Amino acid sequence: MKNRLNTAGAVDLNRRKFLQITTLGLAVVSTGGLLSSCSSDSGASSSAQGATGEAKKGGTLRIGSTGGSTSETLDPQSWVELPSQLRAQQLYDPLAWMAADGSPELVMAKEVTPNADGTEWTITIPAGITTHNGAPFTAEDVLFSIQRIIDNQTPAAFLFGPIDLKASSAVDDTTVKLVFSKPFGVLLDVLSFPYVYMVPRGFDPAKPDGTGPFKYQSFTPGVESTFVRNENYWQEGLPYLDTIVTQDINDESSQVSALQAGQVDVINALSAGSINALKSAGFVVKTNESGSWVPFTMNCSMEPFSDVRVRQAFRLIPDRQQMLEQVFSGFGKIGNDVFSPFDPSFPTDLAQRVQDLDQAKALLKAAGYSDLKINLTTTAAAAGEVKMAQVFAAQAKDAGVNVQIDEYPVGTFYSDYYMKVAFGMDYGTNQLFLNNASQLMIPDYSYYNATFFDNADYTAAYNEAVSTTDDAKRKELISTMAHIDYDQGGYIVPIFSPAIEAYSTKVGGVTDSITGVSPNNADFKSMWLAS
Q1: Which is nearest to 86 in space by CA: 244, 236, 263, 265?
Q2: Which residue(s) pair with 206 in the sheet?
Q3: How far apart are the first and last CA of the chain?
Q4: How far is CA 244 from the centre of its chain?
Q5: Distances, alpha carbon 45 to alpha carbons 275, 278, 284, 510, in Å
């Protein structure tokens, strides 16, 4: 029986790893809170269902995944592309992950427990876990995994905050004691971040050995991987499949064609434009809400956005429902300019911001920016990103704002323009609130502070929130932070993107998920095929 607990943090992240975080935002979305509006029936007349009844053993599941490249890796702590994340979930185990409802859930860890002030955390794992090569996996391997994350400055490194690995230790084969130099109350959120996979000592991604439900058989980066059932998997009765094949398919029309031709059983990360055709052809289509976001970034350190009145005005420009309809055919969720809307601690008292062009004009006039002309720098890095820019520019005209869209290739955008322009765009994953804040809003910690937000009260609330072990107090502090962002922040978040995926009717073990990790929250050990 898996257990639940709460947790987030910070540590510097090497610049060379930037695209590993941002690509995550493009390909997947992870983290959130309450399950919401997940359906396999919306948008078309067909209501095909996947396989039901008792799960069956055997068979080969073929996944046609978008987002691959020849730079793919089987290093689960340092992946970039979506297919690499899916493969990581097949070969390795995390101590915790984001469950389908978006809450942190223990996986390999049996217990994650702090001392009274959060300066020490005890992690226990089951006895008898072995790697694919038959070696025991022990507490020493857990310490090695965390040390490797931090030494290699992989995307999860900064989240471990004030960890003191020299003082940390393996108490015995199944018990780890993690020591922090100051109180740290949010470890489980960190452990559920999608780069904190466990690997054995001496790990070599070129010869991948893990503890996951499937074992390595073959892998060609940018093309395909084939993994087979781990017969000695530590979770009894799992997995069901004999083999799992993950194919890279880099455009959506080819994904759809492959599913229709019976060449694959599952496709992921689809646009709304494919829904009706797939449903009409009898496939199962799921449209899941998530906290994946494609924000407009207003640089608070540059004119005109150094004036909070301009930031407030720009947040009043979007007609959010119209943007959702035009960009995602109504699938997804209206945004309210603050990230992590599904976090269980997200405040419920933020008034939904709506378009108010008269107020926007008044604020711009008061700030001395009537008839403003501004460049919006963007790129096609995430689904709907450029279309969102176009819709915003059209809506801004009625507020007297002339928006010139400057679109660049993804690589050029992130190397030459990201965090260097007054008005840009970005995309982010569906993380828990404090994980997002630590990446994006805290000057001492956040390498990806694209809005250059620097608010002492916000930072103080963050530092207190990650230190306390009092869940109620942490919720109050998150509310304080969200309200500061809502009133003064530099993000415009009009909508949250949907996660859309499609399946053959012979696929079982598919559940609704708010995490946005596609397909099926990467829960491959629970998937099966009807005979």
Answers
A1: 244
A2: none
A3: 29
A4: 23
A5: 11, 11, 12, 21
Asked if 316 and 353 count as a contact pair (C-beta separation under 8 A), the reply is yes
- Which residues, at least 6 apart from 445, have a Cβ–Cβ distance to it below 8 Å? 10, 11, 12, 158, 438, 439
Q: What is the mean pLDDT of each run of 10 residues along the chain (531 residues)?
A: 30 36 36 35 55 95 89 91 92 94 93 96 98 98 97 87 96 98 94 94 96 98 96 97 95 94 94 92 93 94 98 98 95 96 94 98 97 94 87 97 94 90 89 88 83 97 92 97 98 94 96 87 96 78
C-alpha–C-alpha distance, residues 261 and 264, integer Å: 8
Q: Could you tell me if 229 and 214 are in contact, meaning their C-beta atoms sit under 8 angstroms apart?
A: yes
Q: Which residues of 44-133 form beta strands (DSSP E)?
A: 60-65, 93-94, 96-98, 104-106, 111-114, 120-124
Structure tokens at 414: 């992130």
φ/ψ region of 260 (left if φ > 0, alpha if ψ in -120 to 50, else beta) reads: alpha
**pTM to 2 decimals?**
0.83
